[in-house]
């Protein structure tokens, strides 16, 4: 009897969450419509600045006050706002700086890693926001309203830059800094040696999870695979897993995908939640980075 009541309550609350999520998406769409109207005004008024720092401070303070009033973390609310403002600013900048996109245009972007790696996720975000390209577009030929892009993963940074210099891709996204591990020196060296230039930058919040094959719990894990820097970022978590061996791979998402190859049912991977979802893996632990 108690179990049935619990299930009913859970179903009811989840339905409420789903309803609220739909409202959030609707409100975000309405906000973006308003942002685009503002962008139209700025396009017609050359003196109107793209970024109004004073206005953004007022908005941030308003959000913080509202968050406190509702018992929410101001950091959490601020993080959501920063993402919204960043996306809105880039949408306006694209409209102000770029001519109407050619619907037949194709943009090829390279990155080091496997699909759903952090570089791939950052590349997708930048493509959509900065270049005005819908990488998830599925329109049929003749119905395209936005140019498409293709993303190409390479095993190494060198391979990605080689492809760029051979004109196989128009852009290559490279990580250069990490707040925990520091500078990615190999990339800095390559950028200095190659005939390429930096044209933009993207900030991506790395949020590691531990994932494994469905049904495998934390107590059963014997091996953790990931890219070397990701393993370094999760050192404290790994130190709390006695007897578990860390294995370095060339890429976080590649580590996740390797779990599907068989051979070790008790292996796990540190990667993004998006990568875990991409390969049908269960997330065992979240927020595992130092």
Task: Characterise the protein shown here.
The chain has 290 residues and is of the alpha/beta class. It has three domains: 96 residues, Chorismate Mutase Domain, subunit A (Up-down Bundle); 88 residues, D-Maltodextrin-Binding Protein, domain 2 (3-Layer(aba) Sandwich), CATH 3.40.190; 79 residues, Periplasmic binding protein-like II (D-Maltodextrin-Binding Protein, domain 2), CATH 3.40.190.10. The protein contains ten helices and ten strands. The strands form three sheets. It has a five-stranded mixed beta sheet with strand order 8-7-9-6-10. A three-stranded parallel beta sheet has the order 2-1-3. Strand 1, helix 4 and strand 2 form a beta-alpha-beta unit. Helix 1 runs parallel beside helix 3. The chain is globular and about 65 Å long. The two termini are 43 Å apart.
Q: Which strand-content bin applies to the residues? A: 15-25%
Report the structural category: alpha/beta
Mean pLDDT: 84
Number of domains: 3
What is the CATH topology descriptor of the largest domain?
Chorismate Mutase Domain, subunit A
Per CATH, the class of the largest domain reads Mainly Alpha
Number of strands: 10
Major β-sheet profile = 5 strands, mixed
Determine the N-to-C terminus distance: 43 Å
Shape: globular
Q: What proportion of the residues is helical, as a percent range?
A: 40-55%
Count of DSSP helices? Answer: 10
Give the low-pLDDT segments: 136-145
Using the 3D structure, state the CATH architecture of the largest domain. Up-down Bundle
CATH superfamily of the largest domain: Chorismate mutase
Q: Provide the succession of SSEs.
A: HHHEHEHEEEHEEHHEHEHE
**Rg over CA atoms:** 22 Å
